[in-house]
Amino acid sequence: MLTLTENASTAVRDLTSRAGLPDSGGLRIAESEQQLGSFELALVPEAVPGDEVIDSSGATVFVSQQTSTLLSDLTLDADPSATGSPGFTLAPQQG
């Protein structure tokens, strides 16, 4: 299952709060239909049926069913020094 660093959890909480999403909302990750091998991120009010729901330190991330397997051994991180919207990265999970 995809994991989140503390930086990523903080960034997701901040983004969902600023967007005024309900408690059921979060960041959704899905494979891009236009650009094979890349992912689309979107702030959404709730999960799509079939999404994997990841709750990390109060941050909610939804991963599309098709994308869940691709991200299962990765960690989502965010650059806390990025101005404006944080830059998210994916990296292999540590040990």
From TrEMBL:
Pfam families xref list: Fe-S_biosyn
Regions of compositional bias (Polar residues) in chain numbering: 1-10
Location of region: Disordered: 1-26
InterPro entries reported in the protein's UniProt record: ATAP_core_dom, HesB-like_dom_sf
Ranges for domain Core: 2-84
Protein name in the entry: Core domain-containing protein
Originating species: Cellulomonas triticagri
